[in-house]
Amino acid sequence: MMKYQLLSLLPKNLQSYLVGSLSRVTWPSKLAPAINKAAVKCLKIDLSDSEKDIADFHSLEELFTRTLKADARKVLGEMCAPCDSNLRQSLPVENGQVLQAKGIHYSIDDLLCLNESEKKEFHPSWYCSFYLAPHHYHRVHAPFKGQLQSARYVPGELWPVNETFVNIVPRLFCRNERVVFELAHESGGKAYLVMVGALHVGRIQIKDVDSFVSNDWGRQLHSSKTRVFSFSPHREIVAGDELGTFMLGSSVILVFDEILAKTFQFQRVSHPIAVKVGESLLVS
User: Which residues of 81-118 are buried (b: 16+ CB within 10 A; e: fewer)?
Assistant: First the structure.
């Protein structure tokens, strides 16, 4: 609890903004290989599937947000992992509540921040929670074929989302800044994919929405408001299409409605397992 109390006193959003600014500092080209090698070694980053060579990154942010070779990830199922990560949980939603950690639950309504009409139309039934560590690939992808209907930015705090703080901070994912993607499956079912910000991960970008980046300088000067980006016409997506990018590691939460939970048999996971983009979330 001491860590929780100490961090409660710190300006976490400002701290994250400053760390993010430092990560974008471009270093001299002659020093880039040595700095990159040191970062890769320290964080145990695997660059074997990176589109760029180690000497071609000119800042830490470029390294963290690297793209992959075209054939680096294959889609292996109708419902697939949206990110390289540790899948913490894949479990039923019970009475609108899901498990954060032992003895700690949170509300799906609080997480998604839907309006009243959206709440009536969406009946959450299954969820998957993913943790991206700093060494992971940081881009997030569509989990199935269908449509991207909207993206909602929800301002909030920036608590760490590692195991220590997940176990002690109540409603952590509902308190942190996040982007909520509204996804429609071709079967008629619906899901929401939530990119949750974290300490030092105050920048989330939405693919092809150049006007938006979370936790920018304006966010430090005044309180921010929820923003909704509606895509009209809705964007057609297939599993594996890129949705957004974390500047560092964080968390992704997928919430499926009862139509999808009844149509597909999801793996039940209650202890972390390593997954990569495109790997199936279904029982084989």
Answer: bbbbbbbbbbbebeeeebbbbeeeebebeebbbbeeeb
* Contact status, residue 147 vs residue 234, Cβ threshold 8 Å: yes
Instruction: Determine what percent of the chain is predicted with pLDDT higher than 70.
Output: 85
For residues 162 and 134, give the distance between their C-alpha atoms in angstroms, rounded to a whole number. Answer: 11
Taking the C-alpha atoms of residue 284 and residue 274, their distance in angstroms, rounded to an integer, is: 16
Residue 46's nearest CA partner among 133, 153, 148, 173 is 133
- Tens digits of per-residue pLDDT, 67-88? 999 889 999 989 999 999 999 9
Say if residues 193 and 181 touch (Cβ distance below 8 Å).
yes
Active site residue ranges:
84, 141, 250
Q: Give phi and psi for 109, each to the nearest 5.
A: -60, -45
